[in-house]
Task: inverse folding
């Protein structure tokens, strides 16, 4: 009760960076879009936030300068204007410090040129200095639109929150992902977490190795059958979070066991059917040091209706399993299990809210519990002894009173 009261009474001033997720949309370039403010006066910028292990294009984070409009009108018309991007102007921002010239890597035969600029970035009510390549031209045009590049959230690379820490703007670099409480199609990246955020009362699951957000699991069950001995790969990765694809990344060994020849099932003859019931696919349980992750068939399948040329509606059950070197189902936990995942570089751990816990107790807590249990038992015993003595006394008294009464009546 007291704890609940403290949670409610504390003022919450955590930062939230909202990310748009357009599932089902083929253009994934619009997915994972975040909006930030840059410069003085602030200009709204859209950037792609990538939760990934490696990026196919390594242009990183850049910002397109408004001078692109006159330097390359064609690029502006085709790649900027249709997306409704407001352009930053390094020469009109009062806080911009324009540095040395810059040339990007060559990606798909194209590259950018510009300057390295340092300016004020604003996220929510937090401001910090941010350095970025500012693009003024593309001597060799890039084949497709990159928005303002992508900012990568991974374990080794510094992200916005790490810069804020360096500049003493926030207290810690932990961040968590959760389904947005206000809008369903959005995911919140919550940062500057308060000490009393409920996620801190969840167990710390240590990371495995030191380059990625990987954790180890000890057991794996398929429909409550222990299949741990049949599988060698014991790593779950949490770097990749792709909300638009909803992919169940699994190592080849598991894919071969359950999904070898299954990709799509034609369910044209099945009325109101659900993929998972028809196919009796397994529910997987992964047991890590602190958590039990349950992945149900409804998470990794989806029923798609398609109309064929004759106008008949046909249903297809799509299994979204894909081979990868590790397991990864991070997006399912957030999207379907309503879980929160906290990434902590400082403590090299992951914490989860809304996920089942393993039933072991920490040694410290069990010692405390045992010793306090002992004292409770001891006290109870004493009380009992005392009670028994009292009762005996009372009983004796009662008997003597009764016998007195008896004597008197006699
Ligand atoms: C993290 O992101 C950076 C920037 O894209 C990249 O250079 C680095 O290889 C990534 N690290 C890992 C472990 O994926």
Result:
């Amino acid at each position: 009760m007291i704890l609940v009261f403290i949670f409610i009474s504390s003022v919450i001033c955590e930062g939230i960076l909202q990310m748009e997720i357009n599932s089902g949309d083929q253009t994934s370039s619009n997915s994972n879009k975040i909006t930030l403010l840059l410069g003085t006066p602030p200009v709204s910028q859209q950037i792609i936030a990538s939760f990934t292990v490696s990026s196919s294009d390594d242009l990183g984070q850049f910002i397109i300068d408004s001078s692109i409009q006159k330097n390359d009108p064609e690029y502006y018309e085709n790649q900027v204007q249709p997306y409704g991007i407001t352009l930053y102007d390094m020469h009109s921002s009062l806080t911009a410090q324009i540095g040395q010239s810059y040339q990007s890597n060559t990606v798909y035969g194209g590259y950018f040129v510009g300057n390295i600029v340092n300016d004020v970035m604003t996220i929510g009510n937090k401001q910090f200095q941010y350095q970025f390549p500012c693009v003024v031209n593309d001597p060799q045009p890039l084949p497709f639109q990159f928005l303002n590049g992508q900012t990568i959230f991974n374990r080794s690379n510094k992200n916005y929150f790490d810069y804020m820490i360096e500049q003493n703007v926030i207290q810690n670099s932990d961040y968590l992902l959760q389904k947005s409480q206000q809008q369903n199609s959005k995911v919140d990246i919550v940062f500057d977490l308060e000490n009393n955020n409920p996620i801190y009362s969840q167990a710390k699951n240590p990371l495995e190795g030191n380059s990625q957000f990987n954790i180890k699991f000890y057991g794996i069950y398929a429909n409550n059958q222990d299949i741990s001995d049949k599988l060698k790969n014991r790593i779950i990765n949490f770097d990749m979070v792709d909300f638009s694809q909803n992919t169940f990344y699994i190592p080849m060994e598991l894919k071969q066991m359950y999904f070898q020849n299954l990709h799509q099932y034609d369910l044209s003859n099945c009325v109101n059917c659900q993929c998972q019931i028809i196919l009796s696919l397994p529910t997987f349980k992964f047991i890590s040091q602190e958590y039990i992750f349950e992945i149900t068939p409804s998470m990794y399948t989806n029923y798609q209706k398609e109309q064929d040329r004759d106008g008949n509606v046909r249903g297809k059950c799509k299994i979204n399993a894909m081979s990868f070197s590790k397991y990864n189902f991070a997006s399912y936990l957030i999207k379907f299990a309503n879980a929160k995942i906290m990434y902590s570089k400082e403590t090299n751990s992951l914490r989860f809210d809304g996920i089942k816990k393993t039933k072991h107790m920490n040694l410290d807590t069990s010692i405390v519990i045992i010793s306090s249990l002992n004292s409770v038992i001891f006290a109870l015993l004493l009380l009992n002894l005392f009670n028994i003595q009292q009762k005996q006394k009372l009983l004796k008294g009662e008997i003597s009173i009764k016998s007195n009464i008896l004597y008197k009546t006699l």
